[in-house]
Amino acid sequence: MDEEILQDFLVEASELVDQLNEQLVDLEQSPTDADLLNAVFRGFHTVKGGAGFLGITPLIEVCHRAENVFDKIRNGDVSYDAVAADVILRAFDVISDSIELLNDGERELPENDPQLLIDLDVLTKGGAAAEPEPVVEEPKVQSGLQLQEGVDPDGDMTDEEFEALLNQRDSSSV
Questions:
Q1: pTM (2 d.p.)
Q2: Fewest Cβ atoms nearer than 10 Å: which of 35, 54, 78, 111?
Q3: C-beta of residue 79 within 8 angstroms of C-beta of residue 31
Q4: Is residue 150 classed exposed, middle or buried when 0-12, 13-18 and 19+ CB atoms within 10 A define those classes?
Q5: What are the distances in angstroms from CA 57 to CA 48, 68, 81?
Q6: Which regions in the chain score pLDDT beneath 50?
């Protein structure tokens, strides 16, 4: 990661996070203000673009999903209600914390909370976010299922790796 480009991104992203914070507060009072909805959309979009240029995957994931939610909200497909506000504020906290970690010298961000990503995806589809369910440890590999090459069976799995296993399971049980 080019440190000079990263520093330029962090200056811009920090300003955008400050603006987004103010805009999200204003949005609570004016949830249908088109200019405000467009500004919030652009904020998430701009942070996503910079993170994409630098390959900061956890930041890209959450910004992309938040951007998708705001695209639906500004097009009138989804309402910015209390449930949506809660999920978006959780996403904003992750973005803000990520920028702070990068400003503090961290160069590897933690994986996103899968429930947050699911909640953002559900909102994009026009549904209500789910209450977080307790995590149940299940075996990562069942008889007959094969992990993708390079995946540590005892390590953490990405959402894509887990989805691939589910697809294998579903196709083998037909």
A1: 0.70
A2: 35
A3: yes
A4: exposed
A5: 9, 16, 28
A6: 129-135, 138-143, 173-174
